[in-house]
Amino acid sequence: MIRTALPLAALLALGACALPPPPESASLPADAVIGAGDPLRSAIANTSVAFSSQALLAGRPAEAARAVAQMEWLAVEMPTNPRLTSVSPSIIGQMAAARAEWRAALGIAPDVPAQPVINGLYAAARALSAQQGDPAAALSTSAFPQGGQATLLRLAALPSLPLTNSAAVTATDAIRQRDSQSNRRL
């Protein structure tokens, strides 16, 4: 019995090693979609406007933090969202390139999962908006290795992010395309 169990156990162990890791997942906080029923649509609408012009976020670190957090979520959400299976797969590559761009601009560690980034950015945005608490403390985690104060300064003066803008526009187009396909089926 042991002779037959060992090869079977070895095969099962090898099979388990061959499985790809599950896709990354993340969520937006409840206050990310106040007044909006659909976080996907809300994030896409907000980011396509926010990143359309560098001037819209200049000197507005709370808004920049929310917009980057929403893009961070979209980069994780779009490849696995079942409502977007019919959209172009190029959006996944665009989102990955854009994610590298905004992370480099803010000094966000490239290998950190999305959720700590989203949590930190939203906590900083809340502290800035309410003028209560220390927004830099929310960004003083391993996700932001430059430190909270440096990240706040970068949020207040985001450089031009053309890849991020392009990905936000493509996400808007993807939703429009999906909606038009859904309307044709009705």
Automatic annotation (TrEMBL):
Keyword annotations of the record: Signal
Position of the signal peptide: 1-18
Protein name: Uncharacterized protein
Organism: Belnapia arida
